[in-house]
Design goal:
elongated
Length: 122
Amino acid sequence: MKSRNSQAGMTTIGWVLILAILGVFLIIGIKLVPVYISGYSLYSSLESMQKNPKLRGIPVRELRKKVMAIVDINYVNDLKPEDVSITRVGKGYEINVYYEVYRPIMGNLSLVVVWDKTVLIP
């Protein structure tokens, strides 16, 4: 008859390691989810601007005001007015939004999310 001296299951150290790894991923998720939600809502708003016929032929100043209003509505706090560039392309405009978001994780470890979106207003 065999004795049951072999270990069955995980040790306490194994559970602690698994919980620590899950905790790190949870912290990263908590820090990055709001950044992605605001960034993608800004992307979808810029794409809807591209399809809006009322924006054709408006001055650059008004177009910049509309872009910054979208930024305020979508709570994109990391985007500054100098991160938005509007250039004339033919009869329309090209709007480029480029900004970086830094989120500290632990100590001197940080995550960087880069957003770069260009839309053409005909």
